[in-house]
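Hi D.,

Good news: the full-assembly prediction came through. Inputs first.
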Amino acid sequence: MMASSYNAKEEDGHHSVSAASGPSAGPSAKSKKPDNTAFKQQRLPAWQPILTAGTVLPAFFIIGLIFIPIGIGLFVTSNNIREFEVDYTGVDASSPCFTCSQTYSWNSSIPCKCAVSFSLEQPFESNVFMYYGLSNFYQNHRRYVKSRDDSQLNGDKASLRNPSKECEPYRSHDNKPIAPCGAIANSLFNDTLELFYIDPNGTRTQIPLVKKGIAWWTDKHVKFRNPGGNNFNLTVVFQGTTKPVNWRKYVYELDTDPENNGFVNEDFIVWMRTAALPTFRKLYRIIQKKSNMTPTLPRGNYTLDVTYNYPVRSFEGRKRMILSTISWMGGKNPFLGIAYITVGSVCFFLGVVLLIIHHKYGNRNNSADIPN
Amino acid sequence: MDSVTLRLLSWMGEVVCEPPNNKLDRFVGTLYWKDSRYPLDNEKLLLRGCVLRNTEWCFGMVIFAGPQTKLMQNCGRTAFKRTSIERLMNTLVLWIFGFLLCMGIILAIGNSIWEEKVGKNFRDYLVWEDVLSNSVFSGFLTFWSYIIILNTVVPISLYVSVEVIRLGHSYFINWDRKMYYGQRDMPAEARTTTLNEELGQVEYIFSDKTGTLTQNIMVFNKCSINGKTYGDVYDEFGHKVEISEKTPCVDFSFNPLRDKKFHFYDHSLVEAIKLGDPMVEEFFRLLALCHTVMSEEKNEGELVYQAQSPDEGALVTAARNFGFVFRARTPETITLYEMGKHVTYQLLAILDFNNVRKRMSVIVRNPVGQIKLYSKGADTILFDRLDPTNDDLMYTTSEHLNEFAGEGLRTLALAYKDLDEEYFADWMKRLHIASTTLENREELLASLYEEIEQDMMLLGATAIEDKLQEGVAETIACLTLSSIKIWVLTGDKLETAMNIGYSCNMLRDDMNEVFIITGHTVLEVQQQLRRAKEQILGSGRETANCSKDAEKTEQYRNDSVFEETITSEYALIINGHSLAHALEADLECLLLDTACLCKTVVCCRVTPLQKAQVVELVKKYKRAVTLAIGDGANDVSMIKTAHIGVGISGQEGMQAVLASDYSFAQFRYLQRLLLVHGRWSYYRMCRFLCYFFYKNFAFTLVHFWFGFFCGFSAQTVYDQWFITLFNIVYTSLPVLAMGLFDQDVNEQNSLRQPKLYEPGQLNLLFNKRQFFMCTLQGIYTSCVLFFIPYGAFSNTVRDDGSHIADQQSFAVTIATSLIIVVSVQIGLDTNYWTAVNHFYIWGSLTVYFSILFAMHSDGIFRIFPSHFPFIGTARNSLTQTSVWLVILLTAVICVMPVVAIRFLRTDLYPTLSDKVRHMQQASRKQRPQEQNLKRVRRTSSRRSAYAFSHQEGYGELITSGKNMKAARLFPAPPTGRIPGSSSWIESLLKKRTEMASGAAVGPLNGSAERSKSENTPVQQQHID
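Then the structure:
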């Protein structure tokens, strides 16, 4: 009530009092009076925002008005993406891969082949991306995730001979270090997928699948490197190491192209980038658009030839092959669009509700009843 | 003197006394010396901290030293003080720990189930060693893994941050110029850094009086002489002028012996003196003669008065400046320097003051030979003993007295009487006989005094201002408005305490009733308290408010019910004797109930320990935060007992300050300490804690949700580096800046709206409910943080078809969302964006992105390939539009409900703080507001009594001449030796019974250097 009646007095000019009448402080003694700085006196200039109707309500409307169009855009984009998915696990007896899934294990030496036919109702116009998808596969399990040696994969020769302990129990086999070591590498997805277009007249045309450019540039060029660079003879470089237990080939036999062999094999790199969730898809191949005239994948019948190597039945996993086109926002995923539309609408609606509440019950004259 | 000292060394005696105790008013002991026994009692004991006055040296004997002294025994224990917030915080941390264990158990069970159902079949890809393949054992291991991963939910860094914030707040207190007292070059000082936020929750203030509320300076302010008042200043139109520093003082330069510090503003009184008005002269002559002051004249003209009470000093000083200088006294004479000439009066008798008589008189023979009696005393007493011819004058003077009392001044009436020589001689003879009788001596003397003090002539009245410290009344008014209850605990007498109560506006005439509890037995006290309580509550209503188990909220409901029903105001005044009874176990509840129903509580004549007991009582039953403020050694115990102790660094030494938690020079700074610093500290600390808990929950619980999707394998969502840096680097500084600088309401408004203080007392800003709210918000945020990316990322890819749903991108997305969400949240929580806040908030975001890109860069990976496996993730994911859309969506979903709820709350149920903030914003656009200064006007018409803090027996001391220093009675010996002190000790022991309260401990008096008697000295003991 009486606020700073004395404060004012002091500020006015009693500065020299201490020198005049202070019993101990001589005129030369430094006064203990605190400095008059904005910081010390807590008077720093400041911006003091308040949540008022004038700021909150427009914010809600603006968010609503921005989010709804974004959501619609996302939703439309997502819907325009062509996506086709086929499950070739072979769980049902009627499924073409049923036999393979039943008989196959890591140890069998003869590859099991099966062919899944499907038809596309609509043509895929632009580049088509071919994915393999796995379900119920815990690539994000802690013990799985850590079971790798990034130094080794980066071409470190010491690590090649002596992989990190994290790789246990896939660290060494027959007293030889495993390259690449670890559970991730060991469980490399090794089904081979081939796509054939069945002409209406019955001829099978193999669709060319591009296997380069499916991994991140940084992974391919920085994170993964062969020991001694890519120019050396990989067989020599990997001398003294052994292949992962489940592999049938050595790491330097993954591809004939030296640019895509060894640790820098893109299929391998894609696999090594572990998925966040137990259901995931990984890019397998790219089907390039040939010309503007014909669609990349015309509508019609197709066959997917599978070399069935990868067992998933033991853990009730599923294997899928996915064909998808791409938009600016990535693959087909209606979630984001719907979420944006929902949140936008909620914001807008909330804005309206708040406006009504504010007008009906709100305290527009807030300071009226402050006692003074 | 050396020889005396040497002889003292050979002195052998033995003292047998009671063991050390805390009773200040009692001492029993016996001195054995030369086969004789000499009783020692309280009269012969000086307490620690006393100051030797009017005595150059004395010999003493140390009975108790150090912690055994009575004063230290009264000090109480030093307990470690902690704030209620801190205690709550500890509880909450325990709860969080429990919550952590729960989460660990849930996830461990989940892991066991998962291993059993899924993991067992997944062995092709993820082998377990055989020993570990048991799913229960796996669950057990997972439990510990999750405890480690989720440990960030237990805010370890909280304690450090809290301490940093408190330290900052303490510095702000130290730096506050408005709590700096220029006259003594004394800034406020926060002596602890652990109690700041509790300053915002104080409900009870226990204040000392002398030196705390008052300056302990008495000023002769006004007088009424022969029916005319002096002291007010009028302008040329006859209007009364408020006295300020600019008002011209009366020039006393005609008087070479004046006291330069004395100020008087009414010139007419000096005129009257100069004109030689006989009544005025007689008035001042009375003041110069009728007192027990000792004078000391070190150099010619430099008089120093040693007064037993400051009131007397003020009166004698007034007389001195008006030309009636009391110069020296001997046991038989008083020498005045009257208007330029020396006059010596023969002092015939001193009719001493006591509590019953409420007056004192002297009988003197002036140089002309007339015998005169001069008397001063309480008006009620003196007016009964006036000559009937005085009726008219008495009537006018009485009116003046009312006027003076209305201004809160202490009044005294003055009268004189001419005595007949024969009658006086006869009276003197009877007095002598009476004083030598053994039986009923007191009564005989009293009746003799009564007899001679009759038919006196009224001279006038004086008004003395017991100078309050600056701004005391306003401060008390303001603190009362902020629902702080102020109790005055003083060692002073009832009258003095009440007088100050009135002048501080704590006691008022319009109060319904002032209960004065002065019972001497338990029963009396109980009856008086009961009666008071019944009267307040109205009969038949019995409420037991005092129970330890009652929850605080309930207590509050009760209190507010009382406040509604009790519209009238009551005050309780209780003295030390009664308090001792009232503080016993069976009465303390009654005392507390009654006291809490009263607006004002004053305890007088209390010992230091009782002060502490009263504080303890309130602490125990009210569960309220208490603050004790005092300046002397006798306040130490209460300062230590209270939650917060404040020391006034005044004239009474440093004990109080040393025991205190905060110290400053003036009582009025308390207002600023509580309403500005305390309120801010509390507010900031609460906001800080809420945010901190929120932040940790939001950060950590993402792991919990992720657990359900990664086989409960204790896989972390974030990069290890992010987990390490989150609390230390990315989010610590903005919230620290908020905790240090935030202000909801500026300082002017904090002071102008004392009601703003109430949320702190009610503990509204941070309690268990608030804690649940902020943890819920944290849980909600963590949910959104995890499930929005989860939904958006399942089955999605980059715009070039490659990965985006990989673990590392997921981690970066969630981490970035988290940082942005908590930054937006701190932005919402920060009400006061200084440059520092801007710097920290924007800086933290910048630092996050810089570190993120640096750690995901090629270069650092090439150097440490196995430590920075996230190479390239930031580049690959944060260049994606969809990732940013996810982040934006997450942020909006997290913040939107908070904004909506906060808006609704301030819109529909605005707190006072919200209102003031709106007002503040509105007024910032307009003009700097005019200060609305209402001066608190005293409305009291209570006439103060003879409230001298006088003790009886001083007159006797003077007439006996014991306290007259040889140095002044004789030509001063150069070294201060006392002539003829060879058999000093024997003579002393003979005299010891005659020694009044102002001597030395133990019976030893003689010569010694002062330094030798360090521990014993002391003359006037400051009970207050």
